[in-house]
Amino acid sequence: MKDNPPRRTGGRAARRASRAAPLDDAIRPVRPGMECDALKVLSQTDILKIHNAALQVLEEIGLADAPQSGIDHMTRAGAIHGSDGRMRFPRALVEDTVAHANRQIMLYSRDGKRDLELSGNRVHYGTAGAAVNMVDVDGRNYRDSTLQDLHDAARITDRLDNIHFLQRPMVPRDITDSREMDLNTLYACTAGTTKHVGVSFSDPSHVADAFEMLHLIAGGEAEWRARPFVSNSNCFVVPPMKFATEACQTMELCIEGGMPVLLLSAGMAGATTPSTIAGAIVQSVAECLAGLVYVNAVRPGAPAIFGTWPFGLDLRSGAMTGGSGEQALLSAGCAQMHKFYGLPGGAVGGITDAKLPDMQAGWESMCSNVMAGLSGLNMVYEAAGMHASLLGFCHESLILGDDLIGHALRCVRGIEVDDETLAVEQIREVCLQGPGHYLGMGQTLARMQRDYVYPSTGERMSPKEWVEKDKPDLNQSAIRRKEAILSEPSLARFDPLTDRAIRDRFKIHLAG
Predict the structure, then answer these.
(1) What is d(CA 341, CA 260) in angstroms, rounded to the nearest whole number?
(2) φ, ψ for residue 496, nearest 5 deg
(3) pTM over 0.85, yes/no
(4) Block mean pLDDT (10 aa), the chain, length 512
(5) How far apart are CA 340 and CA 333, in angstroms?
(6) Are the beta carbons of 169 and 385 closer than 8 angstroms?
(7) Are strands 261-265 and 304-308 parallel, antiparallel or unpaired?
(8) In this structure, how many other beta carbons lie within 10 angstroms of the beta carbon of residue 251?
(9) Angle CA(368)–CA(371)–CA(377) in degrees, nearest 5?
């Protein structure tokens, strides 16, 4: 009598566990920095017209209100400071600056594992903004944002594969002193994630203290300068066509301290830029070109991101339309201008005007995120979590946005066409020799992780299974995942000696 063969145990469970485990980078279907240049909302003729119009604006109109230090830097480079106080930029100066500007910027991570290379058509998604409210999904209301909310957003970001960087998305309204707010914002973000962080400074006098903190975190000034893991988001202009004096002074200090700068021009179409999409892009490009001259006059080749951020406006009500099709076109058009100049650039995507994570939020966020990615935008800011036209931030939407951006990135990756993917031999085997379907074939199993993006929070159950599982709600699933992430210690927290040194020097509001 033959012995019964041993029963296989746990086969299905083991396969499910294997599929749920984090994927090796070599087989991930999407990743930071994938390249795309599929979408072109502007023709080459359109691009040249916008370029020439921007140069005309800079040469004939110029920008007002530069600080004296900026006047000194820019006139030394070849700009002309007129008797009317406006700084004008000869065409040759602008073109020469573009030709010699830094075209490949590395945004470093603190742990050295998630650096972002900004060049060409490489696409990255992340947060940004200055929301003053938090969205309470359960209570369906808004409340003031706090420092703990910001730190939690950083901790959540650190765990999401498709959120590639953290730029401060909200203002901690529980801190009233502006210096303490700036320094605690820096602490909360860097203690929450080792991904690259972007912050702003409300006053130039706060920059020296910020660098002191960063040197403590990095282990010294030399270590910081070798791998600057924080950049300055700098609204150096007040549209239309004026320098923001104190922000420019902050920018100069950041450049001298070795910090990359985001040159952020954030006009509002119909209010602080022309109402037409083309006109808004012209002004934003002109302002950022002026900023590029400024940065390179301070230090040639300093890393500067070309941050054209024109926003849409509902001309009937005066409300911002961050989730509109017009906004998606603005950012896609700006991405093409970045490519025309060959400069690392960023613009907005993913903003929603919806007040809660709902269907409106989904369609608005996906529209601009996909278009920005297909345009090859290097940095897609405000890509997840932003509600109410930037007035509210939502942790649950940040988590849901990770799934949404995963699908957007799959569109960015596009369609690979080669002998393997054309699959002629598979078709032959299945149709002539096999069972008449591709389920279970080696090629299908081999590529199921490499080619397909699977949602982490979204579900694909049948109606029957959905009922059997008590009809799970997407927002409630996001809440549970948020709670699971925040129940664990931050993997980015500082070692005790470093944390003690920071707390001895600065008033840190987060509990130790």
Answers:
(1) 19
(2) -55, -40
(3) yes
(4) 46 56 77 96 98 98 98 98 98 98 98 97 98 96 98 98 98 98 98 98 98 98 98 98 98 98 96 97 98 98 98 88 96 98 98 97 98 98 97 98 98 96 94 90 88 93 95 95 96 97 98 88
(5) 11
(6) yes
(7) parallel
(8) 31
(9) 100
